[in-house]
Amino acid sequence: MGNFDRATLVAKLNASFGLLPRTTYVRPPVPRFTGAVKSDLIVETYPQSEGLAYVRGNFAMPGRDSPDYAPSLLAFNLLDDLLFEIVRTRNGAAYSVNSSVHGSRRAMATSPSTRLPHRAR
After folding, report:
1. Which long-range CB contacts under 8 A does 95-100 form with residues at least 24 apart?
2. Whether the model pTM is above 0.70
């Protein structure tokens, strides 16, 4: 690690990546979420899971250009910490509990799971 000649490395990088043409990238506009959020519960059984239950909730997320985007990321980070502390540390009901943003654009999800569904409150 770190045992290399800087000038040799720069020359090799310039001979490979340095030959790529320069381009300008403009992020395409992402349409606003106009769909409906359904409150339906979808249950899918997987006998192979041998008693492991997964629960996942998806929520509409503000766009990156929304003033609510950063606060919503902060809120999901706080929720992640709370879920971990309460569900895993205090109750031992799930190892893989989390709360996170998926796709970083329009959707959020929380994904707790447990082998002890009778202990979930």
Report:
1. 100/76
2. no
